[in-house]
Specification:
two-stranded antiparallel ribbon; alpha+beta; 10 helices
């Protein structure tokens, strides 16, 4: 039996912020001129995001007197955005991220009705912070997993990283059919926000958010009565352009996102050929999970693949309610499809995620219902 995702758990920080509140926060920063204010309003209003969640409690509209995230202040007097060092930002990640990993993972294990001791492998994913012993180690400790669990961490791959993590889980179960793999992604993108007049930084501030998701992957037919999202195949493609248009680097004042206006255009230009190569002449999937790098990315994929608005609706819903949580986002969408009774037994799901390079990661999944009898 092929590996399958039997459950997906999600977690978000306790602080929700509306898109308009964050927009106005950036638009009223000291030194913002009229042109920059206009760019901020245009980017935030076009994003089709209603709210996001953040570990930066001081971003909330009613945050007067609220302490900084993980003991670090990001907002000062007059609601001015401060500039913590990369070290300070990463220290917040180390203090805050493990609890989100654990919350999402506990939810996934509970849904699958799997005891923590049954987990044989852990694969963690993140591009928004680093520490060692890392989140893979912390999950073993925080969830009470066996100390013999094999651990892997996929770091700094970007928004597309959940798909390679699922691919790794599938490879593990192919080699060890009894394996139970816990895949967990957590991203604290808001730790790296900054005030800027650079259009790329404004676009990044308008879409990125914080969140975590975890999936239980196994080929054991006895778990969840064989139900879940079967992992049929995977593919990776590098586009002919985009190496400098989507990038994620480390600076002295946080991680620096490069996200040029060319990214949606590159995806729109190349997505049809990429998907055609991936499908190898098979009929198109019945449902789609497309990483919402932003509203423009979804628009280009919808047009490039001749998809109906309904096909892309789950991705737009996650973008609307949560923003772009980098690697965790695609698992939020797959969870919605896993729980959607309208996606029936045998339905094929195409997953697409985009990362620096410009890289397109693809997966084909098949919905499986519980076996009768």
């Amino acid at each position: 039996m092929n590996a399958r995702i039997v459950s997906i758990g999600t977690a978000v920080p306790a602080t929700p912020v509306s898109q308009t509140v964050v927009r106005d926060f950036f638009a009223t920063q000291p030194g913002v001129d009229r042109l920059t204010r206009r760019l901020i309003h245009a980017a935030f209003d076009a994003a089709q995001i209603e709210q996001r969640h953040t570990v930066l409690t001081q971003l909330a509209d009613d945050a007067a007197g609220v302490s900084g995230a993980g003991g670090v202040d990001f907002v000062g007097d007059g609601r001015a955005l401060l500039v913590p060092s990369t070290g300070a930002r990463n220290a917040v990640y180390e203090r805050v991220a493990p609890s989100l990993y654990a919350e999402a993972a506990r939810s996934a294990l509970a849904q699958a009705e799997i005891d923590a001791q049954a987990v044989t492998h852990v694969v963690t994913v993140s591009c928004t912070g680093f520490f060692a012993p890392g989140p893979d180690y912390r999950l073993v400790r925080d969830l009470g997993l066996s100390s013999l669990v094999e651990r892997y961490h996929l770091g700094f791959i970007g928004c597309a990283a959940a798909v390679p993590a699922l691919r790794l889980a599938a490879r593990i179960t192919a080699a060890q059919p009894g394996a139970v793999v816990l895949v967990a992604c957590a991203e604290l993108c808001s730790l790296h926000i900054r005030a800027s007049s650079d259009p790329q930084q404004i676009v990044a501030a308008s879409v990125f958010a914080d969140g975590a998701a975890a999936a239980v992957v196994t080929a054991d037919p006895g778990i969840a009565d064989g139900s879940g999202l079967e992992l049929d195949r995977f593919a990776t493609a590098l586009t002919e352009a985009g190496e400098k248009d989507m990038a994620w680097t480390i600076g002295d004042e946080g991680f620096l996102m490069t996200l040029s206006a060319e990214v949606p255009r590159i995806i729109g230009r190349e997505i049809r050929a990429v998907v055609a190569d991936f499908l190898h002449g098979d009929t198109p999937p019945d449902a789609w999970a497309v990483h919402p790098g932003g509203r423009s990315v979804l628009d280009r994929v919808e047009t490039g693949l001749d998809l109906s608005p309904e096909a892309i609706a789950p991705s737009r819903a996650v973008l609307r309610d949560h923003g772009n949580m980098s690697s965790a986002t695609i698992l939020f969408i797959l969870r919605a499809l896993l729980l959607d009774d309208g996606v029936g037994d045998g339905s094929r799901v195409g997953a697409l995620a985009f990362g620096p390079g410009l890289t397109v990661e693809s997966a084909l999944l098949v919905k499986r219902g519980r076996r009768s009898g």
